[in-house]
Design goal:
With 435 residues, this protein is of the alpha/beta class. Helix content is 48%, strand content 10%. Strand 3 and strand 4 (321-324) form a beta hairpin.
Length: 435
């Protein structure tokens, strides 16, 4: 069980590194317990009540788990799901033999679905809300920085989409680029806190359109399948309010995003449930009207960010490189001891253009031409022997590497001073600048 502390409150992740992800999975399961509580018109009465009893116990356990995630996203999704689920059963009836039918349903005109059929459900929705109040989730419902910053981050994500509309900025780069170029000082994000927007910015408009079209068609086509639709809708809302589908982690099959293996497995279980529910809602013959409506909406959502125009603060993105056009551009490599913000700050001081990898560089890229100037950060100074025809600028190299023959300048941190190293550089006639 993983824990996440926020303002003195210990939030349980139940195997996920982020409690919001656990809340999303719990909310996705809950509608199926409500379906069992509601029961069916066929079957043995004693078994029906046994079914309801088991469902009530399961729902109570899930609600307690949800409560201890202290997830605001979770409680908002739970409230939406309870309202929508109740409304669906009042408006639509199921087909014969208790199955979900072909999705067309019919308006309720008989006494078969009176309000009393929802009584068991309603009797447990109220206590579930009380549980949240007892453990203090409501105490987190305030317009604090983490809430208000979401709007700022989402706007930055929309602008980021314009940096490379066709191919995107690359998986795992959206939060880094938004933090570096678009967000105010003090706001740092790893993703765009919205899985749909993150996919659009990182993978481009084309893939984003296909994804949004599929989600929209599932929502329109399967609306008369109550439990499945409400569960899928809950995951969609969770993915809008938080990055419950962490594309960066999901795409890292070797390092699991630097997180435990069980988080990686649970993350894929959550994604598999989302895909499975969507496929279930899309089953059956293709219905042209929902297909056309969802396609038009998806196209509008995918293309509309491009209407904002490219933000002048954004350089070009040619994943996996950050590229700024200019005269005599610098090719830069950096290791894990430097964050991209520091790297870009030093490159900007040099003026002109540059090309720098978005993430630490384990090796040189032989596909790139040899430029006139190369800036090597940290241990990347060992790449200098490859660029013998270029002027090399070293930034805080290790003393073991020394100074290659083609070193033209040295950048060192002001503190702590490395007096002996500086003396060696001065003896070689290498100019030193401090940052």
């Amino acid at each position: 069980m993983m824990e996440f502390t926020y303002q003195g409150v210990v939030r349980q992740g139940f195997g996920f590194y982020n409690p919001n992800h656990a809340a999303a999975l719990i909310c996705a399961i809950l509608p199926f317990t409500w379906m069992l509580i509601k029961g069916t018109t066929a079957g043995i009465p004693s078994l029906l009540w046994l079914q309801r009893g088991v469902a009530v116990v399961a729902m109570a356990g899930l609600l307690v788990m949800l409560a201890f995630t202290f997830s605001r996203t979770g409680i908002v999704v739970l409230a939406m799901q309870g309202i929508v689920f109740s409304f669906q059963f009042l408006v639509f009836r199921k087909r014969d033999k208790g199955d979900l039918g072909d999705g067309r349903g019919a308006p309720l005109k008989t006494q078969n679905y009176k309000l009393k059929t929802l009584l068991p459900l309603l009797l447990f929705i109220a206590p579930s809300i009380a549980i949240f109040g007892v453990v203090g989730v409501f105490s987190r419902f305030s317009l604090d920085a983490s809430t208000l910053n979401r709007l700022t981050i989402w706007l930055a994500g929309l602008k980021l989409t314009t940096a490379n509309p066709l191919c995107g900025v690359g998986v795992g780069h959206s939060g880094l680029l938004a933090t570096l170029f678009l967000l105010p000082e003090g706001i740092v994000c790893r993703t765009l806190v919205n899985s749909h927007l993150t996919l659009l910015a990182e993978c481009g408009v084309l893939l984003g359109f296909v994804y949004l079209w599929g989600v929209g068609y599932a929502l329109l086509n399967g609306i008369r399948k109550p439990a499945v639709w409400v569960s899928f809708m809950g995951l969609c809302v969770s993915a809008t309010m938080a990055s419950v589908f962490d594309w960066d982690v999901l795409s890292d099959f070797s390092g699991y995003g630097g997180l435990p293996l069980h988080n990686f497995i649970l993350s894929y279980a959550l994604l598999a449930m989302f895909i499975g529910l969507g496929v279930c809602l899309c089953r059956g013959r293709v219905r042209k009207r929902p297909l056309m409506i969802s396609g038009a909406v998806a196209l509008a959502c995918a293309v509309s960010p491009c209407l904002l125009g490219k933000d002048p603060r954004l350089p070009g993105i040619q994943s996996p490189y950050l590229v700024k056009a200019g005269e005599n551009p610098i090719l830069a490599y950096h290791d894990g001891s430097f964050d991209l913000k520091t790297v870009v700050g030093i490159l900007e001081q040099e003026g002109g253009g540059y090309r720098v990898s978005l993430k630490p560089s384990p090796d040189i890229d032989p596909r790139l031409p040899h430029p006139e100037r190369v800036m090597l950060f940290g241990d990347c100074a060992e790449f200098a022997s490859y660029y013998v025809r270029s002027r090399v600028l070293l930034v805080s190299p290790s003393e073991e590497i020394g100074f290659p023959e083609n070193t033209s300048r040295l950048f060192l941190r002001r503190f702590p001073r490395r007096l002996a190293f500086e003396s060696k550089a001065q003896d070689r006639g290498i100019p030193i600048e401090y940052y």
